[in-house]
Amino acid sequence: MHRPIQTLAVVAPSGPVPRDRLRAGLRVLEDLGRTVEVFFDPEDPAADGFLAAPDTARAAAFLAAAASGADAVMAARGG
User: Fold this and answer.
1) For 28-35, which contacts have Cβ atoms below 8 Å and span 24 or more sequence positions?
2) What angle do CA 72, 7, 49 make, to 5 degrees?
3) Residue 60 φ then ψ, to 5°
């Protein structure tokens, strides 16, 4: 039987996400009753304007999100 998604792990596997847009998106998910954990820093000083963080940091965040026990891993934005 299908179990509804209750917890989401949010990552930024590609480009940076402005903090205000991230907050707005998280608010929508929380208003839908989801528990959300973010696995990246939207103001990472290593972000270069094109990527949210260096390759190793983005990969580590994705792996941490996948291992977190969340029901699903979700990208903060398309890539």
Assistant:
1) 33/6, 34/5, 34/6, 34/7, 34/8, 35/6, 35/7, 35/8
2) 65
3) -65, -40
Indicate the DSSP class of residue 14. S
The structure tokens listed for 55 are 């390759």
Question: What does pLDDT average to in each consecutive run of 10 residues of the chain (79 residues)?
Answer: 90 93 96 96 87 94 97 88
Tell me, what DSSP letter sits at residue 32? Answer: T
Q: Report the amino acid identity of residue 56.
A: T
E-state strands within 1-79: 7-11, 35-38, 72-75
3-state class (DSSP) for residue 17: coil
